[in-house]
Amino acid sequence: MTDKDITDAQKRLKQVMDVVVTKKKRIALIEHENFMRTMTANVNSTNPWHILRRTFTSRFENPLINHISSADSDINSIKQEIYIYEEIYTQLYTDLVDLNELKERIEYSKTLQGKYFHVVGHFFSVYCIWKIIISSINIIFNRVGKVDPVTKSIELTVHYFNFEFDVHFWSQYVSFILIGIMVVTSIRGLLITLTKFFYFISSSRSSDVIFLCLAQLMGMYFVSSVLLLRMNMPAKYRHIISRVLGDLQFNFYHRWFDCIFLLSALFSIGILYLHHRSTQQSLSLYDKTVQKIHD
């Protein structure tokens, strides 16, 4: 993404806006002409030669009526075109906002904090792809993983590259760091989403209810996070959490978590694909419309 992309998007937006303004001016001009013709006809109707006017009325009123009907048809056609252009304008404006946000993210990614989040984002992207594959395997073969992903990854790396590495010692520290990052980022994302939602529906009368709902959701989310993140811990720490939680059917919860996670991932991929496709269609529609204007 370059500055030229933003400039081109601004030019496309301005062109569409100019077309909309031109067509609205055309409608105003047609309506003004109709108004003037109607006023002229009303003035002529007060002419003392009304007897002669009634004699030749069929010769003069029919062209006026036909002209007004044709003008109304033109106005309706232009309004339909304006509606199409306004839809294109809305989509192009949204694309321009997205490009500006993307530019800001690129500039932010050049900072130290941005580079950190960039690396973490790539790491969790790989983790998400791995989780989708593992969840699919767990659902198909009806199994539950026994080894946490960090320990498994370190074991595979040591096996293929012949490193001398204390897997059991380092895996617990890496696992706790990974879990800490996952908990912080997931709770942060949840709070941002809930804040936007409750801000949208909040009022002075419903503030107490909102706080109660928020507390309930946060409690449920924390318990479910502890329940599901236990599989990311080494075996000995996993058993400690299992004893604390009591006699629960962990396999049942983990299987449903895999199902919900896989459906959510596929739904998110579908939404991103539809958004990308709608953007491409809006640009294609814009190109066809501009070509039609030039022709």
Distance between the termini: 31 Å
Count of helical segments?
Answer: 9
Share of helical residues: over 70%
Please state the structural category: mainly alpha
Instruction: Output the helix-strand order.
Output: HHHHHHHHH
| Strand residues, percent | under 5%
Shape: elongated
Radius of gyration: 33 Å
Count of strand segments = 0
Low-confidence stretches: 58-62
Number of domains: 2
> What's the average pLDDT?
73
Main sheet specs:
none
Domain Abscisic acid G-protein coupled receptor-like: 108-277
Protein name: Abscisic acid G-protein coupled receptor-like domain-containing protein
Transmembrane segments: 119-141, 173-197, 209-233, 253-274
Keywords: Membrane, Transmembrane, Transmembrane helix
Give me some keywords for this one.
single chain, mainly alpha, elongated
Account of the 3D structure:
The protein has 295 residues and is mainly α. It folds into 2 domains: 108 residues; 167 residues, no CATH class. The protein is 88% helix and 0% strand. It is built from 9 helices and no strands. Helix 1 runs antiparallel to helix 3, helix 5 packs across helix 6 and helix 6 runs antiparallel to helix 7. The protein is elongated, with a radius of gyration of 33 Å. It starts with a helix and ends with a helix. About 2% of the residues have low confidence. Pfam families: ABA_GPCR. This is Abscisic acid G-protein coupled receptor-like domain-containing protein. Keywords: Membrane, Transmembrane, Transmembrane helix.
